[in-house]
Design goal:
Layout lengths: L1 E6 L7 H16 L4 E6 L13 H4 L15 H9 L3 E9 L2 E2 L1 H11 L3 E3 L8 E3 L5 E9 L13 H13 L1 E10 L1 H4 L2 H14 L2
Parallel strand pairs: 1-2, 1-3, 3-7, 7-8
Antiparallel strand pairs: 3-4, 5-6
């Protein structure tokens, strides 16, 4: 089993990074032979999508469409295509994913998707027929879990993008809310169990 963990926080060894590592430990506790690659987005050169349309117009049979931008996504895309499952760790900024994660999601959209017919002709659908699964770990410093519904557009964005582009089903999420006051210790076991669930 090959798993790619996307760490979207700007800060290492803090909430998201720690919880992603804890989820990885959960994976290893059930599947010790799993191959896991963790990608920290801020360490990579990931440029903004330029909406040039090269990827969207590329041959739909290709597993990965050509991207006109030459940056670290050229290395990351084959890694994503080769994975069986994903872990997404993202801090919530202004109710949704932060900028580096949004840039990453935009760059996987049409490089790993092709024009489909549902719900409207031309909408993205996965290039790969391989069904995958994913978990998402999100955090907010201020908003507590009981108020998640009012500030978490991040989960729906991740769910729709990975479904359209990676053929991945989001099978579980962890919302670590109010961490500025309560810390992250209460979320560590939840992250571990979420990682275990990913191997099922």
């Amino acid at each position: 089993m090959k798993i790619v963990a996307i760490m979207g926080s700007y800060r290492k060894a803090r909430t998201i990074d720690t919880l992603v590592d804890r989820a990885i430990e959960g994976v290893k506790s059930v599947a010790p032979n799993a191959q896991i690659e963790k990608i920290t987005l801020v360490d990579r050169d990931i440029q903004y999508c330029r909406n040039c349309g090269v990827c969207r117009k590329d041959d739909p049979v290709k597993p990965i469409a050509h991207c006109a931008i030459q940056d670290d996504m050229q290395e990351i895309l084959p890694t994503m295509a080769d994975a069986d499952a994903y872990v997404f760790g993202v801090p919530i900024f202004e109710g949704t994913v932060n900028a580096v994660t949004k840039t990453f999601l935009e760059r996987i959209c049409w490089t790993m998707a092709k024009a489909g017919r549902w719900p409207v002709k031309g909408c993205p659908e996965p290039r790969s027929p391989v069904k995958r699964q994913a978990i998402a770990i999100l955090s907010s410093g201020i908003i507590v879990p009981a108020l998640r519904v009012f500030c978490d557009d991040a989960t729906s964005l991740i769910k729709s993008t990975i479904g359209d582009s990676l053929n991945a089903k989001l099978i579980g999420t962890l919302y670590a809310g109010g961490v500025e006051k309560v810390g992250i210790d209460r979320y560590l076991e939840q992250a571990h169990k979420l990682g275990q669930k990913l191997t099922s």
